[in-house]
């Protein structure tokens, strides 16, 4: 079918209005693109002249006034690099967020850069520098809640991407650093359950056990329940991930817990023994024999006490059972 415009159709006010609108819109976009390009070129020259803050004003103008221009994405990248150079991490992250959510074709690179910023603030990333801009000053100290929110934004931007999945793990780390240990442990448990084959799954499980271990260390000497919780968590991790690179650390922590338990049981046994309370002492010697048979076998004196305790009647228990 052949389409043509008759002289009558061209005289139609509606059609003429539409054509005028399209022509004006195209002209406006062309002018906007031209203005944006000029501002961008000025900004680049200011960077070369060693005036990044002046350049930033130009790039921010482009990002604010010329959002539809093709130069906007380039301006946002330059703004991110300058903010990072100046140690202004929050506006740097926001520039990346606009690139990830508003600029087609820039998501993957911007998403990865968001992760680098958040990891650096968490203390787990290397300081990034641009080849033409050396870092002018260190990053500002950021409220832990802001770092937590950064990881939440990264997850929201790409929940099923590799970066988004990793962000779940580091969100848990950020929660722990902010003192939200229960939430951190729950997040690590969720990660290990939801992503069991991910390379960070064993790290997440280890962090669960390590949080329990650190809780016990903080209350050491008066925390049998925390000690038992730490021992169970560490033993579970070692059994589930025998080949993990965290295994040696977990085993060392478990040894620390068990040595403390053995020392406490032996101290209590000797305390009651010194007070002439053989029945109470026997309770703790029996527990030592049940929980630490390898120590009993190696210590002849202790073995005699444990064997003697086994002969004691088990009624009329005195003292707490550990």
Automatic annotation (TrEMBL):
SUPFAM superfamilies from the UniProt entry: TPR-like (SSF48452)
Protein name (record): Outer membrane lipoprotein BamD-like domain-containing protein
Pfam family, one: YfiO
Domain of life: Bacteria
Keyword list, A-Z: Signal
Domain Outer membrane lipoprotein BamD-like per the UniProt entry, residue ranges: 148-307
UniProt key word Ribonucleoprotein: no
